[in-house]
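Please check our next protein.
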Amino acid sequence: MAAETAASVAGALLTITAETMSEMRHGALLALKYLLASRADALDRLLPAPVAQLVGALTDDDVHAAAAAALIGVAGHLREGMPAPLPRLFGALWAALRRLDDLTASTATMMMCARLCDELPCAQLAAAAPPPDDAAAL
C-alpha cells in the first residue's frame, strides 16, 4: 500500500473513532493498530495525527485496551521520534489504570503501554503524575 493510501486509510479510521458505537470505535482502533504496525516505514507521516486520538481513547472505558495496544506497536517510534506526547500519554495511562478494577482483562495491555515511559526523564514523569492528594485514592 502506498504511503498516500495508508494516510487516507488512517484518516478514515480516525473519523470512525469519533462514532458513538463502541464496537465501531474498537474496530477502528484495531485497524489503526495493524495499519501502523504494517507501515513502520511511514510512521513519520502517519503517526502525528493518530497519537492524539489514541491518547484520548485511553480515557474511554469501552476502547482503552485497543488504544493501548495500538500505542504499544509504535512505542519505539514515539520514544525516539516524537517524545512530546509521552508525558500526556503517561498521565492518561495512569488515570486509566486508577479507574480499572483490580486485574481486568485490559490491565496487562495498559501496563505494557505504560512501559513507554520507562526511559523518560524523571522531570517529565513527575509533570504527568497525579497530584499528591490523589495518591491516597490508590
